[in-house]
């Protein structure tokens, strides 16, 4: 067979003619073509190019028209492409007049396909349920969430075991952290159950189909189930779980007027509680019981965001000091079997198992934020009578105030002491106790008596150095407190050598060390 680009004649296939019952005889450079009845149809002589050219002539030309009247389709058009079920109902119940009795069967209408093509419905119930732990894991990411959490997290990823419906959650700064988080989750649950993860269901997000994660799953023998494009319904277990989590978190934050920055703590607390809640798929059991085989206890549950009083260990207090501090309850810590408590003054989270919670109370967050909005000594800017340029504005420095002004301005000085050998006490907490007020008054008096500082105007272009209070309890050999001591210290660590100073010289002595002697 040769390909001829400009071939203007049709080629008859001998094989097809023979399949249809025709017989072909070639003899003496002549081709004889006969039909099934052995009647001669054509006699063709071979040309110079070894081809047999057959000329066919049209005996009679006819124009045929096929007219099939589809009345059902016509009424479908007249009713604006109403579905055939609606047309059949109109005829059956005689709801209108003038519509003929026609059998309206479902037919394919191209215009309806282009204009009204619906999506295939998703099954209401899952067709597959795992029969053992870790056989199928559902996962999905939620975020970004605004505002960020205290640790700068913007997303959380949930893992749900299909068999027990127990949920685990991890917090992420970026979606790129999914691979490392999955490895950590896999190692933890497989170590706990001595069973491997077999299947993982997720959407087609870039974090789930990254080359490193796909390769890792392939190496570990984990089969991936991915959703079809734009079909999150196929990952319904994880999608519904994330929605339930967010609904619960919003309610918990609103209940006690907790700032939104605590959303991560609320998510962790919500997961802990949901693992101990009933589930429609678990036949009167909780996810925690199905997972661990033991019925969980809920007698220790507390109200999120309530005022909590945490016990202060004897090693961290004196005999006459308060035995607890006021915190905000923000969740549970399963690693230590303790409660997570937040100190709004110091912005620290502690773990404690000795806790009393006032479920009816809540923290006044507006006042707390006002008291702790700054850890620096802020002073008013310099006021000048003439206009200045942008470059000159950058050099404007605050004026120097007296120590007594600093001590009295409780709304401006908010300094937390982080020294290892000093008390974990902020200025706001100390100023409320008379013993520390007396200690600070003693320090101010000593500074004034000794003329420690000389008040002066700040040189142009110079940068002032802030101060902070340091508190210390002086004890005797028996561990009893003898004296409460406060020191107002300068933040010398903010100075730069060669910029703020060249040499360091600090002569210090006490009168007790000066002994009288004779001069020889």
Molecular structure report:
- Strand 10 (324-333) and strand 11 (338-343) form a beta hairpin.
- The protein has helices at residues 14-19, 71-78, 84-92, 110-116, 178-193, 211-220, 236-255, 263-274, 287-292, 365-371, 390-394, 403-408, 427-430, 434-449, and strands at residues 23-27, 30-34, 40-45, 136-142, 155-161, 167-172, 199-202, 223-226, 307-311, 324-333, 338-343, 348-352, 355-358, 467-475, 481-490.
- With 520 residues, it is an alpha+beta fold.
- The protein contains 14 helices and 15 strands.
Question: What does this entry show, briefly?
Answer:
With 520 residues, this protein is an alpha+beta fold. It has helices at 14-19, 71-78, 84-92, 110-116, 178-193, 211-220, 236-255, 263-274, 287-292, 365-371, 390-394, 403-408, 427-430, 434-449, and strands at 23-27, 30-34, 40-45, 136-142, 155-161, 167-172, 199-202, 223-226, 307-311, 324-333, 338-343, 348-352, 355-358, 467-475, 481-490. The chain has 14 helices and 15 strands.
Element-by-element helix/strand order: HEEEHHHEEEHEHEHHHEEEEEHHHHHEE
- Specify the helix fraction band: 25-40%
Q: Report the oligomer.
A: single chain
Number of helices: 14
User: Radius of gyration, Cα only, in angstroms?
Assistant: 43 Å
- Shape from CA axes? elongated
Q: Which descriptors would you attach to this protein?
A:
alpha+beta, five-stranded mixed sheet, five-stranded antiparallel sheet, 15 strands, 25% helix
């Amino acid at each position: 067979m040769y390909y001829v680009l400009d071939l203007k004649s049709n080629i008859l296939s001998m094989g097809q003619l023979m399949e249809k019952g025709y017989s072909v005889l070639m003899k003496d450079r002549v081709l004889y073509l006969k039909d099934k009845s052995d009647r001669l149809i054509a006699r063709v002589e071979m040309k110079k190019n070894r081809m047999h050219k057959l000329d066919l002539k049209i005996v009679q030309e006819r124009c045929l028209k096929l007219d099939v009247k589809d009345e059902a389709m016509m009424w479908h058009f007249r009713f604006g492409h109403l579905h055939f079920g609606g047309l059949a109902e109109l005829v059956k119940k005689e709801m209108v007049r003038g519509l003929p009795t026609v059998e309206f069967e479902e037919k394919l209408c191209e215009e309806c396909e282009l204009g009204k093509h619906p999506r295939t419905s998703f099954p209401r119930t899952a067709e597959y349920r795992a029969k053992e732990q870790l056989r199928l894991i559902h996962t999905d990411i939620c975020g970004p969430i605004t505002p960020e959490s205290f640790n700068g997290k913007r997303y959380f990823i949930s893992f749900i075991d299909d068999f027990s419906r127990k949920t685990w959650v991890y917090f992420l700064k970026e979606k790129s952290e999914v691979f490392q988080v999955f490895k950590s989750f896999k190692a933890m649950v497989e170590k706990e159950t001595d069973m491997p993860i077999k299947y993982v269901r997720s959407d087609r997000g870039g974090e789930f189909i990254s080359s490193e994660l796909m390769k890792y799953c392939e190496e570990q023998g984990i089969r991936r189930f991915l959703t079809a494009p734009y079909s999150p319904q196929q990952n319904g277990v994880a999608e519904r779980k994330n929605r339930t989590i967010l609904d619960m978190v919003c309610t918990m934050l609103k209940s006690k007027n907790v700032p939104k920055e605590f959303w991560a703590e609320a998510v962790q607390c919500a997961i802990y509680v949901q693992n101990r809640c009933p589930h429609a798929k678990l036949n009167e059991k909780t996810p925690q019981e199905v997972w661990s085989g033991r019925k969980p206890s809920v007698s220790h549950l507390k109200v999120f965001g309530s005022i909590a009083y945490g016990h202060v260990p004897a090693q961290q207090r004196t005999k006459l000091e308060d035995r607890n501090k006021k915190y905000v309850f923000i969740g549970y810590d399963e690693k230590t079997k303790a409660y997570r408590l937040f100190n709004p003054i110091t912005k620290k989270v502690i773990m404690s198992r000795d806790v009393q919670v006032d479920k009816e109370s809540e923290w006044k967050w507006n006042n707390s934020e006002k008291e702790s909005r700054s850890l620096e000594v802020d002073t008013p800017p310099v006021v000048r009578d003439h206009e200045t340029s942008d470059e000159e504005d950058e050099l404007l420095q605050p004026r120097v105030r007296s120590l007594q002004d600093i001590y009295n301005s409780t709304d401006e000085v908010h300094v937390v002491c982080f020294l290892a050998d000093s008390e974990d006490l902020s200025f706001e907490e100390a100023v409320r106790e008379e013993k520390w007020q007396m200690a600070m008054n003693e320090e101010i008096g000593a500074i004034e008596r000794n003329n420690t500082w000389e008040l002066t105007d700040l040189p142009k272009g110079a940068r002032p150095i802030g101060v902070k209070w340091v508190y210390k309890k002086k004890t005797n050999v028996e561990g009893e407190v003898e004296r409460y001591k406060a020191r107002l210290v300068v933040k010398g660590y903010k100075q730069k050598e060669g910029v703020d100073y060249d040499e360091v010289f600090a002569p210090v002595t006490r009168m007790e060390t000066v002994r009288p002697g004779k001069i020889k």
